[in-house]
Design goal:
- This protein has 136 residues and is mainly alpha-helical.
- It has one domain.
- It is 42% helix and 10% strand.
- The protein has 5 helices and 3 strands; from the N terminus they run βββααααα.
- A 3-stranded antiparallel sheet has the order 1-2-3.
- β2 and β3 form a beta hairpin.
- α1 packs across α2 and α2 packs across α5.
- The longest helix has 25 residues.
- The radius of gyration is 18 Å and the shape is elongated.
- The chain binds zinc ion.
- The site of zinc ion has 8 residues, from α4.
- Zinc ion binds next to α4.
């Protein structure tokens, strides 16, 4: 019997870490659970400051960049995994966008309090919604 399509639950997928500098670091969790820099054109995230590049061969400098990149991404994962709802609220505050779909602008008071747009708000689990509101 055909019926109404079943609404599926959603969860925050957009996060912001508290990095240094004028631009907050924003990240999107893809379907495999990996965090990627957001928006996508930001490349692989923050760059190693040139002053921190070691003098030496090309290979040594490349190794330093790769080590720094791996440790930076590990720190991002640790920070988001330690408090995913807090990181989702930081994203919503920094960008004014929904932490679930990343596209909708948060305009109404309930949207801003929950860090989620009207379309995603009704699809959040109760615990997730209360956690977002508590941190917002
Ligand atoms: Zn949304």
């Amino acid at each position: 019997m055909p019926g109404r399509p079943q609404a599926t639950m959603t969860e925050p997928r957009y996060f912001s870490t508290s990095g240094d500098g004028p631009t907050p670091w924003c990240w999107r969790r893809n379907d495999s659970g990996t965090l990627r820099p957001w928006p996508p054109h930001t490349g692989d995230g923050p760059s190693l400051p040139k002053a921190e590049l070691p003098a030496g061969s090309w290979g040594e400098r490349l190794g330093a960049v790769l080590d720094w990149s791996r440790s930076t991404l590990a720190a991002v994962h640790a920070q988001v995994d330690a408090d995913p709802l807090g990181a989702a609220v930081r994203f919503a505050r920094a960008t004014g966008r929904c932490c679930c779909c990343g596209s909708a602008r948060l305009q109404s008071v309930p949207e801003r309090l929950s860090s989620a747009c009207v379309g995603c708000l009704g699809l959040l689990a109760h615990d997730t919604l209360s956690g977002l509101v508590a941190r917002g």
